[in-house]
């Protein structure tokens, strides 16, 4: 709801501040006084296109500011500045904002009718919402919306899973390659250390055999071998022990020493004989060590790390191979969600099509009351051909087709050129089925174009009824419409100091009578015209009170029932 509007240096308006109330506010005045500038100012505040020629002549900047009351009771302050060079800045609650942000904010707050670029109802995607509102299908739509959300969520999850599966397949292939490389080499714990020792032995085979042979000869087989010489030593120790018992313990160790030296001699002989001194054996060890070094470089740094890596890759590959179970679960859930969505959407479609005929006839009757008696209306559906075209609204899109003139083909509502006809069509749609939130601001410009008399009175009555739910601002030239207003502003233009100045005045009862008399009789207002204006205001006021009383009695009866 629009609560406050301030304008400075915009077109012919020098400075202006207005406060708005709920209900129907009418703005009247002579042609060219600047009434539509007010609607244009609101349009700029909700993201309309700005240009340098909007800035008042001789001024550097035009500034507009408004206070809106949101549906939750929160106040939103919007400000926009336009420079004489055509640059524009916008602010929401004091923070710099883009025009797109203004338009996003404006959606639930304001609708302007009479200027094509601001008419939300010209967006064909909103037509099906109006039809559903008219037919009372909110519950059906909600079920379709919920089912669509479930299906969409599962479909998105399935697509993510498919992407993951592609990545998983690549990962599994890579893991399999790594694991095969390790398993083909078949490393053993500590194998690299063992082979390093073997390589050292093989590299020194000649030296080892020579040393072993020399030691064996010295110990066992040589002319001066140690073991035969020790026999002489032990005999002498035995003679010593026979004389002195102190040699007894040494004599007792004779067999052990002999056995150890013999074992050493046999080991030297067998060790030298067991050395494979061939170059082929050394090359075999070198090649194996090279394989292990490559594994350690890729998966190490140690051979133990390589073995741990093989275990980890085996577990990961097993996990990836079981991922298909999740895919099967998602596929089953997705198919159930798809069937559930189709069930609700088909049911909604079955109810929409009969309702579309009733809606078209009701719209034709409403337009007939608004001096468009020969208008033909039709709701045309476009059914989705693939599931990619399914939406939260169901299996079809709907668009209103209208022919205001006999003999003309039905055409999409968006192609209606006349501003007055378009405003009346919007008014009829709003009163038939409105999806607007309570308290939303609706601004009607040129709604009275091409009408008068009793039709104008019907338009005023519809606006007043619409104002029971929304805040309505109506720019009008007709007294029959102005008389229905709960608040009345007069817009006038004068020349001061050689400059044109627009003024806006809130009218009291006597001033309203005078303004309506001017609208009826022109520049010369007679006593009879004033009396007619007074009678018109009184009749509309009485009618409004009667309607309110009847509505209250009807509500009371409904509650008692």
Walk me through the structure.
The structure is a single chain. The protein is an alpha/beta fold. Helix content is 56%, strand content 17%. A 6-stranded antiparallel β-sheet has the order 2-1-4-5-6-7. Strands 8-12-13-3-14-15 form a 6-stranded mixed β-sheet, with helices on both faces. Helix 5 runs antiparallel to helix 10 (279-299) and helix 16 crosses helix 17. The protein is elongated. It starts with a strand and ends with a helix. Mean pLDDT is 84; it is low at 548-561.
| Number of helical segments with 4 or more residues | 17
Which strands sit side by side, in order, in the main sheet?
A: 2-1-4-5-6-7
* Proportion of helical residues: 55-70%
End-to-end Cα distance, whole Å, is 34 Å
SS elements, strand count: 15
Question: What is the overall silhouette?
Answer: elongated
Largest sheet: 6 strands, antiparallel
* Strand composition percent: 15-25%
- Uncertain runs are 548-561
Task: Tag the structure with descriptive keywords.
single chain; 561 residues; alpha/beta; 6-stranded antiparallel sheet; 6-stranded mixed sheet; 15 strands; 56% helix; elongated; disordered C terminus
């Amino acid at each position: 709801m629009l609560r406050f509007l301030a304008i400075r240096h915009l077109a012919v308006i020098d400075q202006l501040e207005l406060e708005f109330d709920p209900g129907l506010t009418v703005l009247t005045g002579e042609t060219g006084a600047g009434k539509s500038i007010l609607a244009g100012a609101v349009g700029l505040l909700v993201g309309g296109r700005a240009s340098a020629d909007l800035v008042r002549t001789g001024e550097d900047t035009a500034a507009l500011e408004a206070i809106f009351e949101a549906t939750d009771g929160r106040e939103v302050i919007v400000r926009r500045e336009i420079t004489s060079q055509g640059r524009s800045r916008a602010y929401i609650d004091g923070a710099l904002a883009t025009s797109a942000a203004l338009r996003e904010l404006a959606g639930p707050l304001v609708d302007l009718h009479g200027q094509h670029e601001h008419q939300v109802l010209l967006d064909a995607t909103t037509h099906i919402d109006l039809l559903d509102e008219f037919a009372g299908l909110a519950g059906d739509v909600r079920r379709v919306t919920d089912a669509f959300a479930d299906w969409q969520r599962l479909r998105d999850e399935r697509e993510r899973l498919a992407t993951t599966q592609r990545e998983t397949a690549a990962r599994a292939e890579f893991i399999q390659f790594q694991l095969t490389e390790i398993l083909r080499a078949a490393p053993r714990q500590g194998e690299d250390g063992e082979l390093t020792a073997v390589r050292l032995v093989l590299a020194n085979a000649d030296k080892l055999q020579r040393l072993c042979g020399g030691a064996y000869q010295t110990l066992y087989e040589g002319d001066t071998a140690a073991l035969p010489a020790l026999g002489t030593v032990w005999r002498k120790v035995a003679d010593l022990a026979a004389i002195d018992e102190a040699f007894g313990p040494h004599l007792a160790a004779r067999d052990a020493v002999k056995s150890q030296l013999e074992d050493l001699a046999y080991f030297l002989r067998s060790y030298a004989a067991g050395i494979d001194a061939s170059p082929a054996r050394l090359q075999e060890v070198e090649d194996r060590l090279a394989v292990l070094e490559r594994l350690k470089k890729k998966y190490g740094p140690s051979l133990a790390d390589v073995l741990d890596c093989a275990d980890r890759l085996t577990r990961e590959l097993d996990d990836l191979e079981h991922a298909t179970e999740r895919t099967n679960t998602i596929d089953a859930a997705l198919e159930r969600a798809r069937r559930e969505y189709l069930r609700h959407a088909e049911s909604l479609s079955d109810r929409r099509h009969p309702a579309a005929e009733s809606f078209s006839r009701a719209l034709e009757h409403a337009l007939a009351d608004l001096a468009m008696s020969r208008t033909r209306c039709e709701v045309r559906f476009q059914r989705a051909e693939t599931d990619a075209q399914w939406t939260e609204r169901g299996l079809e899109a709907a668009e209103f087709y209208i022919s205001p003139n006999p003999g003309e083909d039905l055409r999409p509502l968006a192609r209606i050129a006349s501003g007055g006809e378009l405003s009346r069509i919007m008014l009829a749609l709003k009163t038939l089925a409105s999806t607007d939130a309570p308290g939303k601001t609706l601004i009607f410009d040129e709604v009275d174009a091409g009408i008068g008399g009793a039709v104008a009175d019907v338009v005023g009555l519809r606006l007043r009824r619409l104002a029971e739910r929304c805040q309505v601002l109506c720019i009008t030239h007709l007294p029959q419409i102005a008389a229905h207003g709960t608040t009345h502003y007069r817009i006038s233009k004068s020349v001061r100091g050689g400059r044109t100045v627009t003024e806006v005045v809130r009218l009291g009862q006597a001033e309203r009578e005078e303004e309506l008399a001017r609208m009826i009789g022109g520049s010369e207002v007679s006593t009879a015209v004033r009396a007619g204006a007074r009678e018109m205001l009184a009749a509309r006021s009485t009618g409004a009170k009667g309607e309110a009383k009847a509505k209250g009695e009807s509500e009371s009866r409904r509650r008692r029932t």
